[in-house]
Design goal:
The complex is a heterodimer of chains A (285) and B (313). Chain A folds into 2 domains: 62 residues, no CATH class; 173 residues, MetI-like (MetI-like fold, Orthogonal Bundle). Helices cover 74% and strands 0% of the residues of chain A. Chain A has 14 helices and no strands. In chain B, helix 5 runs parallel beside helix 9 and helix 6 runs antiparallel to helix 10. The N terminus and C terminus of chain B are likely disordered. Chain B is flat and about 70 Å long. Chain B has 313 residues and is mainly α. Chain B has a two-stranded antiparallel ribbon with strand order 1-2. Classes of the chains: A mainly alpha (285), B mainly alpha (313).
Protein backbone atom coordinates (compact mmCIF):
# COMPACT_ATOMS: atom_id res chain seq x y z
CA UNK A 1 0.00 0.00 0.00
CA UNK A 2 2.68 2.42 1.04
CA UNK A 3 4.75 1.47 -1.98
CA UNK A 4 1.83 2.18 -4.29
CA UNK A 5 1.27 5.59 -2.76
CA UNK A 6 4.91 6.29 -3.16
CA UNK A 7 4.95 5.42 -6.85
CA UNK A 8 1.75 7.37 -7.46
CA UNK A 9 3.15 10.37 -5.71
CA UNK A 10 6.31 10.05 -7.70
CA UNK A 11 4.39 9.89 -10.98
CA UNK A 12 2.34 12.99 -10.19
CA UNK A 13 5.44 14.79 -9.05
CA UNK A 14 7.17 13.91 -12.26
CA UNK A 15 4.24 15.11 -14.38
CA UNK A 16 4.19 18.46 -12.56
CA UNK A 17 7.94 18.72 -13.01
CA UNK A 18 7.61 18.21 -16.76
CA UNK A 19 4.74 20.67 -17.14
CA UNK A 20 6.58 23.38 -15.21
CA UNK A 21 9.81 22.75 -17.07
CA UNK A 22 8.16 22.81 -20.50
CA UNK A 23 6.51 26.12 -19.62
CA UNK A 24 9.87 27.49 -18.46
CA UNK A 25 11.50 26.20 -21.66
CA UNK A 26 8.95 28.17 -23.64
CA UNK A 27 9.66 31.33 -21.63
CA UNK A 28 13.42 30.83 -21.96
CA UNK A 29 13.34 30.33 -25.71
CA UNK A 30 10.53 32.79 -26.49
CA UNK A 31 12.83 35.60 -27.67
CA UNK A 32 14.56 33.17 -30.02
CA UNK A 33 11.30 31.76 -31.35
CA UNK A 34 10.10 35.32 -31.81
CA UNK A 35 13.19 36.15 -33.82
CA UNK A 36 12.98 33.04 -36.02
CA UNK A 37 9.26 33.32 -36.74
CA UNK A 38 9.40 37.07 -37.34
CA UNK A 39 11.98 36.51 -40.03
CA UNK A 40 9.27 34.73 -42.06
CA UNK A 41 6.72 37.53 -41.63
CA UNK A 42 5.79 40.11 -44.25
CA UNK A 43 6.60 43.75 -43.51
CA UNK A 44 2.90 44.46 -43.07
CA UNK A 45 2.51 41.56 -40.64
CA UNK A 46 5.45 42.73 -38.53
CA UNK A 47 3.96 46.21 -38.35
CA UNK A 48 0.35 45.24 -37.66
CA UNK A 49 0.73 42.19 -35.42
CA UNK A 50 4.15 42.67 -33.78
CA UNK A 51 3.32 40.42 -30.83
CA UNK A 52 1.91 37.38 -32.57
CA UNK A 53 4.43 34.61 -32.64
CA UNK A 54 3.37 32.92 -35.88
CA UNK A 55 3.34 34.71 -39.23
CA UNK A 56 0.01 35.20 -40.99
CA UNK A 57 1.62 33.92 -44.15
CA UNK A 58 5.11 32.54 -44.50
CA UNK A 59 7.43 34.54 -46.73
CA UNK A 60 11.07 33.96 -47.56
CA UNK A 61 11.52 37.44 -49.03
CA UNK A 62 13.29 38.77 -45.93
CA UNK A 63 16.30 36.53 -46.49
CA UNK A 64 17.36 37.76 -49.95
CA UNK A 65 16.42 41.31 -48.89
CA UNK A 66 18.60 41.13 -45.82
CA UNK A 67 21.43 39.28 -47.54
CA UNK A 68 21.83 42.22 -49.92
CA UNK A 69 23.52 44.01 -47.02
CA UNK A 70 24.64 47.61 -47.08
CA UNK A 71 26.16 49.72 -49.85
CA UNK A 72 26.74 46.80 -52.22
CA UNK A 73 28.47 44.64 -49.60
CA UNK A 74 26.46 41.50 -48.98
CA UNK A 75 26.26 39.18 -46.01
CA UNK A 76 28.49 36.75 -47.89
CA UNK A 77 31.33 39.10 -46.96
CA UNK A 78 30.20 39.55 -43.35
CA UNK A 79 29.81 35.79 -42.80
CA UNK A 80 33.14 35.11 -44.48
CA UNK A 81 34.85 37.63 -42.19
CA UNK A 82 33.29 36.16 -39.05
CA UNK A 83 34.21 32.61 -40.05
CA UNK A 84 37.78 33.63 -40.82
CA UNK A 85 38.28 35.47 -37.53
CA UNK A 86 36.57 32.80 -35.42
CA UNK A 87 38.43 29.88 -36.98
CA UNK A 88 41.94 31.29 -36.72
CA UNK A 89 41.39 32.81 -33.29
CA UNK A 90 39.91 29.64 -31.76
CA UNK A 91 42.62 27.34 -33.16
CA UNK A 92 45.26 29.60 -31.63
CA UNK A 93 43.52 30.00 -28.29
CA UNK A 94 42.95 26.29 -27.72
CA UNK A 95 46.33 25.03 -28.95
CA UNK A 96 48.35 27.57 -27.01
CA UNK A 97 46.20 27.27 -23.88
CA UNK A 98 46.60 23.48 -23.81
CA UNK A 99 50.39 23.83 -24.02
CA UNK A 100 50.55 26.43 -21.27
CA UNK A 101 48.17 24.44 -19.06
CA UNK A 102 50.43 21.38 -19.40
CA UNK A 103 53.44 23.46 -18.42
CA UNK A 104 51.69 24.56 -15.25
CA UNK A 105 50.11 21.21 -14.41
CA UNK A 106 53.03 18.86 -15.01
CA UNK A 107 56.37 20.68 -15.02
CA UNK A 108 58.32 21.65 -11.92
CA UNK A 109 60.23 24.59 -13.31
CA UNK A 110 61.66 27.50 -11.36
CA UNK A 111 59.10 30.28 -10.93
CA UNK A 112 56.15 28.01 -11.61
CA UNK A 113 54.02 29.24 -8.73
CA UNK A 114 54.74 32.90 -9.53
CA UNK A 115 53.72 32.48 -13.17
CA UNK A 116 50.66 30.51 -12.14
CA UNK A 117 49.60 33.35 -9.86
CA UNK A 118 50.24 35.85 -12.65
CA UNK A 119 48.15 33.75 -15.02
CA UNK A 120 45.24 33.68 -12.57
CA UNK A 121 45.45 37.42 -11.99
CA UNK A 122 45.55 37.96 -15.76
CA UNK A 123 42.46 35.78 -16.11
CA UNK A 124 40.68 38.18 -13.82
CA UNK A 125 41.78 41.21 -15.76
CA UNK A 126 39.55 41.46 -18.76
CA UNK A 127 40.71 42.76 -22.12
CA UNK A 128 38.42 45.80 -22.12
CA UNK A 129 40.49 47.48 -19.42
CA UNK A 130 43.53 47.59 -21.70
CA UNK A 131 41.62 48.54 -24.81
CA UNK A 132 43.09 52.05 -25.13
CA UNK A 133 46.81 51.20 -24.93
CA UNK A 134 46.22 48.11 -27.06
CA UNK A 135 44.43 50.21 -29.62
CA UNK A 136 47.39 52.62 -29.72
CA UNK A 137 49.82 49.69 -29.94
CA UNK A 138 47.93 47.94 -32.76
CA UNK A 139 47.63 51.30 -34.47
CA UNK A 140 51.43 51.59 -34.38
CA UNK A 141 51.72 48.07 -35.83
CA UNK A 142 49.44 49.18 -38.68
CA UNK A 143 46.85 46.59 -37.61
CA UNK A 144 43.80 48.89 -37.50
CA UNK A 145 41.10 47.76 -39.93
CA UNK A 146 42.63 44.29 -40.15
CA UNK A 147 41.60 41.08 -38.37
CA UNK A 148 44.96 40.74 -36.62
CA UNK A 149 44.02 42.43 -33.30
CA UNK A 150 41.22 39.87 -32.91
CA UNK A 151 43.33 36.85 -33.83
CA UNK A 152 46.99 37.25 -32.84
CA UNK A 153 46.69 37.76 -29.03
CA UNK A 154 44.88 34.40 -28.81
CA UNK A 155 48.04 32.59 -29.91
CA UNK A 156 49.73 33.44 -26.61
CA UNK A 157 47.31 31.49 -24.44
CA UNK A 158 43.93 32.59 -23.15
CA UNK A 159 44.03 32.59 -19.33
CA UNK A 160 40.44 31.40 -18.85
CA UNK A 161 41.06 28.35 -21.05
CA UNK A 162 44.51 27.76 -19.55
CA UNK A 163 42.87 27.63 -16.14
CA UNK A 164 40.02 25.38 -17.33
CA UNK A 165 42.38 22.89 -18.98
CA UNK A 166 44.84 23.13 -16.06
CA UNK A 167 42.05 22.23 -13.61
CA UNK A 168 41.07 19.30 -15.79
CA UNK A 169 44.67 18.04 -15.96
CA UNK A 170 44.91 18.13 -12.19
CA UNK A 171 42.24 15.44 -12.17
CA UNK A 172 44.28 13.08 -14.39
CA UNK A 173 46.26 10.64 -12.24
CA UNK A 174 49.99 11.23 -12.34
CA UNK A 175 50.53 7.47 -12.44
CA UNK A 176 49.87 7.66 -16.16
CA UNK A 177 52.68 10.19 -16.65
CA UNK A 178 55.01 8.14 -14.49
CA UNK A 179 54.25 4.97 -16.39
CA UNK A 180 54.96 6.71 -19.69
CA UNK A 181 58.14 8.24 -18.22
CA UNK A 182 59.41 4.81 -17.18
CA UNK A 183 58.68 3.58 -20.69
CA UNK A 184 61.12 6.24 -21.92
CA UNK A 185 58.68 8.95 -22.87
CA UNK A 186 59.93 12.54 -22.45
CA UNK A 187 57.85 15.39 -21.01
CA UNK A 188 57.17 16.50 -24.57
CA UNK A 189 56.00 13.04 -25.55
CA UNK A 190 53.84 12.73 -22.43
CA UNK A 191 52.03 15.90 -23.51
CA UNK A 192 51.26 14.74 -27.04
CA UNK A 193 50.78 11.02 -26.41
CA UNK A 194 49.34 10.78 -22.89
CA UNK A 195 47.79 14.09 -21.83
CA UNK A 196 46.36 15.45 -25.09
CA UNK A 197 44.10 12.47 -25.80
CA UNK A 198 42.85 12.53 -22.20
CA UNK A 199 41.99 16.23 -22.08
CA UNK A 200 39.75 16.09 -25.15
CA UNK A 201 36.59 16.87 -23.12
CA UNK A 202 38.23 19.96 -21.62
CA UNK A 203 39.45 21.05 -25.05
CA UNK A 204 35.96 20.70 -26.49
CA UNK A 205 34.40 22.62 -23.61
CA UNK A 206 36.98 25.37 -24.13
CA UNK A 207 36.37 25.28 -27.87
CA UNK A 208 32.62 25.76 -27.50
CA UNK A 209 33.17 28.75 -25.22
CA UNK A 210 35.82 30.12 -27.57
CA UNK A 211 33.70 29.80 -30.68
CA UNK A 212 30.71 31.58 -29.36
CA UNK A 213 32.65 34.33 -27.62
CA UNK A 214 34.54 35.08 -30.82
CA UNK A 215 31.49 34.82 -33.06
CA UNK A 216 29.44 37.11 -30.78
CA UNK A 217 32.29 39.51 -30.07
CA UNK A 218 31.12 43.02 -30.69
CA UNK A 219 33.51 45.23 -28.76
CA UNK A 220 36.80 44.51 -30.57
CA UNK A 221 35.43 44.47 -34.14
CA UNK A 222 33.64 47.73 -33.42
CA UNK A 223 36.84 49.37 -32.26
CA UNK A 224 39.29 47.89 -34.75
CA UNK A 225 37.31 47.57 -37.98
CA UNK A 226 36.44 50.70 -39.87
CA UNK A 227 35.66 49.72 -43.46
CA UNK A 228 32.33 47.99 -44.11
CA UNK A 229 33.90 45.23 -46.21
CA UNK A 230 35.88 44.07 -43.14
CA UNK A 231 32.82 44.01 -40.84
CA UNK A 232 31.97 40.86 -38.93
CA UNK A 233 28.38 39.70 -38.49
CA UNK A 234 27.81 41.43 -35.16
CA UNK A 235 28.76 44.86 -36.50
CA UNK A 236 26.77 44.28 -39.67
CA UNK A 237 23.67 43.44 -37.61
CA UNK A 238 24.07 46.54 -35.55
CA UNK A 239 23.76 48.57 -38.76
CA UNK A 240 20.12 47.49 -38.98
CA UNK A 241 19.45 49.34 -35.72
CA UNK A 242 21.24 52.52 -36.76
CA UNK A 243 18.79 55.38 -37.04
CA UNK A 244 20.38 56.43 -40.33
CA UNK A 245 19.76 53.13 -42.11
CA UNK A 246 16.36 52.26 -43.52
CA UNK A 247 14.89 49.90 -40.96
CA UNK A 248 13.60 46.82 -42.68
CA UNK A 249 12.77 44.78 -39.58
CA UNK A 250 11.98 41.62 -41.51
CA UNK A 251 15.44 41.71 -43.08
CA UNK A 252 17.01 42.42 -39.67
CA UNK A 253 15.25 39.42 -38.10
CA UNK A 254 16.20 37.20 -41.03
CA UNK A 255 19.88 38.12 -40.80
CA UNK A 256 19.81 37.90 -36.99
CA UNK A 257 18.43 34.37 -37.33
CA UNK A 258 21.10 33.39 -39.84
CA UNK A 259 23.82 34.92 -37.67
CA UNK A 260 23.00 32.67 -34.72
CA UNK A 261 22.45 29.58 -36.84
CA UNK A 262 26.11 28.47 -37.16
CA UNK A 263 26.64 28.85 -33.42
CA UNK A 264 23.53 26.81 -32.68
CA UNK A 265 24.52 24.08 -35.13
CA UNK A 266 28.03 23.80 -33.71
CA UNK A 267 26.62 23.79 -30.21
CA UNK A 268 24.18 20.96 -30.99
CA UNK A 269 26.87 18.90 -32.72
CA UNK A 270 29.32 19.17 -29.85
CA UNK A 271 26.84 19.27 -27.00
CA UNK A 272 26.33 15.51 -27.13
CA UNK A 273 30.07 15.03 -27.10
CA UNK A 274 30.44 17.55 -24.30
CA UNK A 275 27.89 15.98 -21.98
CA UNK A 276 29.27 12.51 -22.75
CA UNK A 277 32.78 13.78 -22.16
CA UNK A 278 31.88 15.25 -18.81
CA UNK A 279 29.98 12.18 -17.62
CA UNK A 280 32.49 9.56 -18.81
CA UNK A 281 35.45 11.36 -17.36
CA UNK A 282 33.44 11.87 -14.19
CA UNK A 283 33.11 8.11 -13.92
CA UNK A 284 36.69 7.43 -14.91
CA UNK A 285 38.18 10.04 -12.59
CA UNK B 1 61.80 2.90 -10.96
CA UNK B 2 63.95 5.99 -10.48
CA UNK B 3 67.03 3.81 -11.08
CA UNK B 4 66.01 2.87 -14.59
CA UNK B 5 65.28 6.45 -15.56
CA UNK B 6 68.54 7.86 -14.19
CA UNK B 7 70.62 5.20 -15.89
CA UNK B 8 68.88 5.94 -19.15
CA UNK B 9 69.43 9.68 -18.88
CA UNK B 10 73.06 9.55 -17.72
CA UNK B 11 74.46 8.50 -21.08
CA UNK B 12 72.95 11.41 -22.97
CA UNK B 13 74.64 14.54 -24.33
CA UNK B 14 74.55 17.89 -22.56
CA UNK B 15 72.14 19.20 -25.19
CA UNK B 16 69.57 16.59 -24.43
CA UNK B 17 70.22 17.16 -20.73
CA UNK B 18 69.31 20.80 -21.34
CA UNK B 19 66.36 19.81 -23.52
CA UNK B 20 64.90 17.51 -20.89
CA UNK B 21 65.69 19.78 -17.95
CA UNK B 22 62.53 20.62 -15.98
CA UNK B 23 63.11 24.36 -16.44
CA UNK B 24 63.54 24.08 -20.20
CA UNK B 25 60.46 21.93 -20.55
CA UNK B 26 58.43 24.23 -18.29
CA UNK B 27 59.34 27.44 -20.08
CA UNK B 28 58.94 25.75 -23.46
CA UNK B 29 55.31 25.09 -22.59
CA UNK B 30 54.46 28.32 -20.81
CA UNK B 31 56.74 30.46 -23.02
CA UNK B 32 53.91 31.67 -25.24
CA UNK B 33 52.01 32.88 -22.21
CA UNK B 34 55.06 34.69 -20.83
CA UNK B 35 55.62 36.53 -24.12
CA UNK B 36 51.94 37.34 -24.56
CA UNK B 37 51.69 38.54 -20.99
CA UNK B 38 54.61 40.95 -21.43
CA UNK B 39 53.49 42.28 -24.82
CA UNK B 40 49.70 42.35 -24.51
CA UNK B 41 49.28 42.95 -20.77
CA UNK B 42 52.30 44.42 -18.96
CA UNK B 43 53.33 46.90 -21.62
CA UNK B 44 49.75 48.18 -22.24
CA UNK B 45 49.18 48.36 -18.48
CA UNK B 46 52.10 50.74 -17.99
CA UNK B 47 51.24 52.74 -21.08
CA UNK B 48 47.69 53.05 -19.79
CA UNK B 49 48.96 54.36 -16.46
CA UNK B 50 51.01 56.96 -18.32
CA UNK B 51 48.12 57.95 -20.63
CA UNK B 52 45.84 58.29 -17.60
CA UNK B 53 47.96 61.24 -16.47
CA UNK B 54 47.80 62.97 -19.82
CA UNK B 55 45.42 64.74 -22.12
CA UNK B 56 45.50 62.52 -25.20
CA UNK B 57 43.31 62.22 -28.29
CA UNK B 58 45.14 59.20 -29.71
CA UNK B 59 46.59 61.21 -32.59
CA UNK B 60 48.75 64.09 -31.38
CA UNK B 61 51.34 63.67 -28.62
CA UNK B 62 49.98 63.18 -25.07
CA UNK B 63 50.20 66.24 -22.79
CA UNK B 64 51.13 65.62 -19.16
CA UNK B 65 48.43 66.84 -16.76
CA UNK B 66 49.20 64.79 -13.66
CA UNK B 67 46.25 63.60 -11.62
CA UNK B 68 43.73 65.97 -13.16
CA UNK B 69 41.80 63.19 -14.93
CA UNK B 70 41.29 61.34 -11.66
CA UNK B 71 40.29 64.50 -9.82
CA UNK B 72 37.79 65.41 -12.52
CA UNK B 73 36.20 61.98 -12.33
CA UNK B 74 35.34 62.22 -8.66
CA UNK B 75 34.61 65.93 -8.42
CA UNK B 76 33.04 67.45 -11.52
CA UNK B 77 32.03 64.52 -13.75
CA UNK B 78 28.53 63.82 -12.46
CA UNK B 79 27.84 61.43 -15.35
CA UNK B 80 30.83 59.34 -14.27
CA UNK B 81 29.60 59.09 -10.69
CA UNK B 82 26.15 58.05 -11.88
CA UNK B 83 27.71 55.49 -14.20
CA UNK B 84 29.71 54.02 -11.32
CA UNK B 85 26.59 53.69 -9.15
CA UNK B 86 24.59 52.16 -12.01
CA UNK B 87 27.33 49.61 -12.60
CA UNK B 88 27.38 48.57 -8.93
CA UNK B 89 23.59 48.15 -8.95
CA UNK B 90 23.86 46.12 -12.14
CA UNK B 91 26.58 43.82 -10.77
CA UNK B 92 24.99 43.30 -7.35
CA UNK B 93 21.64 42.33 -8.87
CA UNK B 94 22.55 40.44 -12.04
CA UNK B 95 25.38 38.29 -10.66
CA UNK B 96 23.61 36.74 -7.63
CA UNK B 97 20.41 36.19 -9.61
CA UNK B 98 22.32 34.59 -12.44
CA UNK B 99 24.19 32.21 -10.14
CA UNK B 100 21.05 31.26 -8.21
CA UNK B 101 19.19 30.44 -11.42
CA UNK B 102 22.21 28.54 -12.75
CA UNK B 103 22.42 26.42 -9.59
CA UNK B 104 18.66 25.72 -9.42
CA UNK B 105 18.54 24.65 -13.04
CA UNK B 106 21.72 22.58 -12.73
CA UNK B 107 20.20 20.80 -9.70
CA UNK B 108 16.97 20.18 -11.59
CA UNK B 109 18.77 18.70 -14.55
CA UNK B 110 21.73 16.95 -13.00
CA UNK B 111 20.35 13.48 -13.58
CA UNK B 112 20.64 12.05 -17.07
CA UNK B 113 17.92 10.82 -19.36
CA UNK B 114 17.20 11.95 -22.85
CA UNK B 115 14.31 14.30 -22.03
CA UNK B 116 16.24 16.06 -19.30
CA UNK B 117 19.20 16.48 -21.65
CA UNK B 118 16.87 18.17 -24.15
CA UNK B 119 15.57 20.53 -21.44
CA UNK B 120 19.11 21.32 -20.41
CA UNK B 121 19.98 22.18 -24.00
CA UNK B 122 17.00 24.52 -24.32
CA UNK B 123 17.91 26.30 -21.09
CA UNK B 124 21.45 26.65 -22.29
CA UNK B 125 20.49 27.93 -25.72
CA UNK B 126 19.93 31.60 -24.74
CA UNK B 127 23.46 31.75 -23.37
CA UNK B 128 25.00 30.47 -26.57
CA UNK B 129 23.60 33.39 -28.50
CA UNK B 130 22.62 35.78 -25.69
CA UNK B 131 25.70 37.93 -26.00
CA UNK B 132 25.05 38.48 -29.66
CA UNK B 133 23.82 41.63 -31.26
CA UNK B 134 20.93 39.59 -32.71
CA UNK B 135 19.43 39.05 -29.27
CA UNK B 136 19.96 42.65 -28.19
CA UNK B 137 17.99 43.72 -31.27
CA UNK B 138 15.12 41.37 -30.32
CA UNK B 139 15.24 42.60 -26.72
CA UNK B 140 14.54 46.15 -27.85
CA UNK B 141 11.41 44.88 -29.57
CA UNK B 142 10.14 42.70 -26.70
CA UNK B 143 10.51 45.35 -23.98
CA UNK B 144 9.70 48.34 -26.17
CA UNK B 145 6.53 50.30 -26.68
CA UNK B 146 3.63 47.93 -27.33
CA UNK B 147 5.96 44.92 -27.10
CA UNK B 148 4.95 41.56 -25.69
CA UNK B 149 6.03 42.40 -22.12
CA UNK B 150 3.99 45.60 -22.31
CA UNK B 151 0.96 43.55 -23.41
CA UNK B 152 1.54 40.97 -20.68
CA UNK B 153 1.57 43.72 -18.04
CA UNK B 154 -1.61 45.15 -19.60
CA UNK B 155 -3.26 41.76 -19.34
CA UNK B 156 -2.25 41.42 -15.69
CA UNK B 157 -3.64 44.89 -15.04
CA UNK B 158 -0.30 46.22 -13.77
CA UNK B 159 0.12 48.85 -16.47
CA UNK B 160 -2.42 50.70 -18.54
CA UNK B 161 -1.80 51.51 -22.17
CA UNK B 162 1.50 51.59 -24.01
CA UNK B 163 4.66 51.62 -21.99
CA UNK B 164 8.27 51.20 -23.03
CA UNK B 165 10.47 49.59 -20.39
CA UNK B 166 13.48 50.60 -22.44
CA UNK B 167 12.63 54.28 -22.84
CA UNK B 168 11.75 54.78 -19.15
CA UNK B 169 14.61 55.69 -16.82
CA UNK B 170 13.32 53.75 -13.84
CA UNK B 171 12.90 50.44 -15.70
CA UNK B 172 15.60 50.53 -18.38
CA UNK B 173 18.28 49.03 -16.13
CA UNK B 174 15.99 46.13 -15.17
CA UNK B 175 15.65 45.11 -18.81
CA UNK B 176 19.42 44.91 -19.09
CA UNK B 177 19.67 42.98 -15.79
CA UNK B 178 17.01 40.51 -16.94
CA UNK B 179 18.82 40.06 -20.25
CA UNK B 180 21.96 39.17 -18.27
CA UNK B 181 20.16 36.83 -15.87
CA UNK B 182 18.46 35.07 -18.79
CA UNK B 183 21.90 33.91 -19.91
CA UNK B 184 22.77 31.75 -16.90
CA UNK B 185 23.94 28.88 -19.14
CA UNK B 186 27.68 29.06 -18.74
CA UNK B 187 27.71 29.03 -14.92
CA UNK B 188 25.04 26.30 -15.17
CA UNK B 189 27.38 24.19 -17.28
CA UNK B 190 30.18 24.66 -14.77
CA UNK B 191 27.81 23.77 -11.91
CA UNK B 192 26.68 20.64 -13.76
CA UNK B 193 30.25 19.49 -14.21
CA UNK B 194 30.83 20.18 -10.51
CA UNK B 195 27.72 18.26 -9.47
CA UNK B 196 28.83 15.25 -11.51
CA UNK B 197 32.13 15.24 -9.63
CA UNK B 198 30.46 14.73 -6.26
CA UNK B 199 30.78 11.00 -5.52
CA UNK B 200 27.41 9.23 -5.33
CA UNK B 201 28.70 7.40 -2.26
CA UNK B 202 28.44 10.64 -0.23
CA UNK B 203 24.71 10.76 -0.87
CA UNK B 204 24.32 7.04 -0.26
CA UNK B 205 26.06 7.38 3.09
CA UNK B 206 23.87 10.38 3.99
CA UNK B 207 20.76 8.42 3.01
CA UNK B 208 21.81 5.57 5.28
CA UNK B 209 22.26 8.07 8.10
CA UNK B 210 18.73 9.34 7.45
CA UNK B 211 19.51 12.76 5.99
CA UNK B 212 16.72 14.21 3.87
CA UNK B 213 17.22 15.90 0.47
CA UNK B 214 17.30 19.37 2.02
CA UNK B 215 19.99 18.36 4.50
CA UNK B 216 21.91 16.63 1.72
CA UNK B 217 21.84 19.85 -0.28
CA UNK B 218 23.21 21.96 2.57
CA UNK B 219 25.67 19.42 3.97
CA UNK B 220 26.96 17.72 0.82
CA UNK B 221 26.08 19.53 -2.38
CA UNK B 222 26.87 23.10 -1.32
CA UNK B 223 30.20 22.36 0.43
CA UNK B 224 31.36 20.08 -2.39
CA UNK B 225 30.30 22.67 -4.91
CA UNK B 226 31.80 25.64 -3.07
CA UNK B 227 35.03 25.78 -5.13
CA UNK B 228 32.90 25.82 -8.28
CA UNK B 229 30.62 28.51 -6.81
CA UNK B 230 33.70 30.54 -5.96
CA UNK B 231 35.06 30.12 -9.50
CA UNK B 232 31.72 31.17 -10.99
CA UNK B 233 31.29 34.08 -8.59
CA UNK B 234 34.66 35.59 -9.47
CA UNK B 235 34.13 35.14 -13.19
CA UNK B 236 30.60 36.50 -13.20
CA UNK B 237 31.48 39.44 -10.98
CA UNK B 238 34.27 40.49 -13.31
CA UNK B 239 32.24 40.03 -16.47
CA UNK B 240 29.44 41.97 -14.76
CA UNK B 241 31.71 44.98 -14.36
CA UNK B 242 32.70 44.61 -18.02
CA UNK B 243 29.16 44.41 -19.42
CA UNK B 244 28.96 46.42 -22.60
CA UNK B 245 27.21 44.99 -25.67
CA UNK B 246 23.73 44.55 -24.22
CA UNK B 247 23.51 47.97 -22.61
CA UNK B 248 25.08 49.57 -25.65
CA UNK B 249 22.64 48.10 -28.17
CA UNK B 250 19.44 47.67 -26.16
CA UNK B 251 19.38 51.07 -24.49
CA UNK B 252 22.48 52.90 -25.78
CA UNK B 253 23.29 53.87 -22.20
CA UNK B 254 20.06 55.80 -21.90
CA UNK B 255 17.51 57.02 -21.22
CA UNK B 256 19.01 59.87 -19.25
CA UNK B 257 22.14 57.71 -18.58
CA UNK B 258 20.02 55.18 -16.65
CA UNK B 259 21.95 52.27 -18.21
CA UNK B 260 25.23 54.06 -18.80
CA UNK B 261 27.35 51.17 -17.50
CA UNK B 262 31.03 51.76 -16.77
CA UNK B 263 32.43 50.28 -19.98
CA UNK B 264 29.75 51.97 -22.08
CA UNK B 265 30.79 55.32 -20.66
CA UNK B 266 34.47 54.44 -20.97
CA UNK B 267 33.93 53.61 -24.63
CA UNK B 268 32.02 56.84 -25.24
CA UNK B 269 34.74 58.96 -23.63
CA UNK B 270 37.68 57.17 -25.27
CA UNK B 271 36.47 56.48 -28.79
CA UNK B 272 33.51 58.76 -29.47
CA UNK B 273 34.88 61.89 -27.76
CA UNK B 274 38.46 60.64 -28.22
CA UNK B 275 39.49 61.50 -24.67
CA UNK B 276 41.89 58.58 -24.39
CA UNK B 277 43.73 59.99 -21.40
CA UNK B 278 40.51 60.30 -19.44
CA UNK B 279 39.41 56.86 -20.67
CA UNK B 280 42.69 55.35 -19.43
CA UNK B 281 42.15 56.91 -16.02
CA UNK B 282 38.66 55.40 -15.95
CA UNK B 283 40.14 52.02 -16.89
CA UNK B 284 42.63 52.25 -14.04
CA UNK B 285 39.94 53.03 -11.50
CA UNK B 286 38.03 50.01 -12.81
CA UNK B 287 41.11 47.80 -12.43
CA UNK B 288 41.40 48.94 -8.82
CA UNK B 289 37.70 48.36 -8.11
CA UNK B 290 37.74 44.87 -9.62
CA UNK B 291 41.02 44.15 -7.81
CA UNK B 292 39.54 45.13 -4.44
CA UNK B 293 36.37 43.11 -5.03
CA UNK B 294 38.41 40.07 -6.03
CA UNK B 295 40.69 40.46 -3.02
CA UNK B 296 37.64 40.60 -0.74
CA UNK B 297 36.28 37.38 -2.25
CA UNK B 298 39.65 35.62 -1.99
CA UNK B 299 40.09 36.69 1.61
CA UNK B 300 36.71 35.36 2.63
CA UNK B 301 37.00 32.08 0.76
CA UNK B 302 38.56 30.20 3.68
CA UNK B 303 35.29 30.79 5.54
CA UNK B 304 33.06 29.13 3.00
CA UNK B 305 35.02 27.39 0.26
CA UNK B 306 35.79 23.76 0.97
CA UNK B 307 38.64 22.15 -0.94
CA UNK B 308 39.15 18.43 -0.81
CA UNK B 309 42.69 17.65 0.23
CA UNK B 310 44.74 16.75 -2.80
CA UNK B 311 46.20 13.50 -1.51
CA UNK B 312 48.38 11.77 -4.08
CA UNK B 313 46.43 8.56 -4.28
Amino acid sequence: MAALNYTQRKKIGRAIFHIVVIFLCFLMTYPLLYMVFSSFKTAQDIFQRPNSLFPQEFTLANFPNGWRGFGGITFTTFFGNSIFVTFFAVVGQIASSAMVAYGFARCNFKGRSIWLAIMIVTMMMPAQILIIPQYIMFNNFGWIDTFLPMIVPGYFGYPFFIFLIYQFMQGIPRDLDEAAFIDGCSKYGIFTKVILPLIKPALITAMIFAIYWKWDDFFSPMIYLSSVKKYTISIALKMFTDPSSVSDWGAAYAMATLSVLPVIIIFFCFQKYLVEGISTTGMKG
Amino acid sequence: MSQSSTSKKSGQSSFSKFLYNENTVGYFFIGLFVIGFLVFTVYPLFMSLYYSMTKYDGLSAPQWIGLKNYIRMFTTDVRYQKSLLTTFIYVFTSVPLRLIFALIVAMMFKRGGRVVAAYRTLFYLPSVIGGSVAVAVIWRQLWGNGGIINKAFNALGLIEGDFSFIATSSTALSTVVILAVWQFGSPMLVFLAGLKDIPASYYEAAEVDGANKWQQFWKITLPCLSPVIFFNLINQMISGFMAFTQAYIVTRGGPNDATNLYVVYLFERSFTSRQMGYGSAMAWVLIIIVGIMTAILFNTQHKWVFYESKGGK
